[in-house]
Amino acid sequence: MEIMTLFKQVAKHLTGRDVMFRWQEPVWNNTSGAAYKSLSGDAIIDVNPGASDPVYTFLHECAHVRLDFSQMAPSAYWRCEPGSQITPEAERAELRALPREDRADQLAKIWLDYSKRYAWRYFAPTLFEGQLLALVDYPKMEIEND
Ligand SMILES: [Zn+2]
Fold first, then answer.
1. Which residue range forms the structural domain that includes residue 42?
2. C-alpha 15 to ligand 1 mean position (Å)
3. Whose CA is closest to 88, among 25, 34, 48, 52?
4. What is the pTM of this model?
5. How many C-beta atoms lie closer than 10 Å to residue 2's C-beta?
6. Is residue 146 assigned to a domain?
7. Domain count, the chain
């Protein structure tokens, strides 16, 4: 399966929403990932291909869409050029201790552990793809209990 399709499928499965996935540097400069809510209420996730662990970054952003989407402010920032915007205060590393970030990290970690545990089942050419394929099958009941 094509990798972009796979990212979209995983995002939909884990967040319960249609997500526009972009494999690019987020609009906030020097960040590994971002989730946005468009003015029309659509979810968009960017993952920087240069992130140290792109799967983890992707899952962290999925966790934000899953947990925080109703509180996210709609904006048109997602339309800006990659890396063109100064990173907002709330996304800066020193403020990552916010409870919201802890909850997103916890959920991302549960999903990441699952993806690593079951990736081998899918005979994918890379661990990366195996992890995404495993996440498409992440059990619904576990999603509901997260
Ligand atoms: Zn975050």
1. 3-138
2. 15
3. 34
4. 0.91
5. 7
6. no
7. 1
In a domain, 143, yes or no: no
What's the pLDDT tens digit per position in 70-123?
999 999 999 999 999 987 765 665 556 678 889 999 999 999 999 999 999 999
The DSSP bridge pattern shows strands 19-22 and 43-47 to be parallel
Residues 51-77: tens digit of each pLDDT: 999 999 999 999 999 999 999 999 999
Ligand 1 mean position, distance from CA 114 (Å): 20
Look at residue 144 and tell me if it is in a domain: no
Helix (H, G, I), strand (E, B) or coil at 124: coil
Distance 140 CA to ligand 1 centre (A): 23
Q: How far is the CA of 125 from the centre of ligand 1 (A)?
A: 30
**Ligand 1 centroid to 123 CA: how many Å?**
31
Task: Give the span between the Cα atoms of 102 and 106, in whole angstroms.
Answer: 6
Q: How far is the CA of 139 from the centre of ligand 1 (A)?
A: 24
